[in-house]
Design goal:
69 residues; mainly alpha; 2 domains; 3 helices; 59% helix; elongated
Length: 69
């Protein structure tokens, strides 16, 4: 929260006192968040690889898990 307060201060945003409880509540609501997981089939991975291979290689992305069903 301190970093967020610093952002408010550095950008000269007003209303930190009224915004703080909303940020606090949002953070509390997100504490059990879990990132969704996906599995991809080989056909879709090949389509993505063909279209985006330059960027996938450039940024060092690893291929996701393949759905074996």
């Amino acid at each position: 929260m301190e970093t967020l307060k610093q952002v408010y201060t550095q950008l000269n945003f007003s209303g930190w006192e009224s915004a703080f409880p909303h940020f606090e509540r949002y953070i509390e609501e997100q504490k059990n968040y879990q990132q969704n997981t996906y599995q991809y089939d080989q056909e879709n991975l090949q389509i993505v690889r063909k279209a985006w291979s330059h960027w996938i290689d450039r940024w060092g992305y690893q291929p996701p898990c393949i759905n074996s069903n």
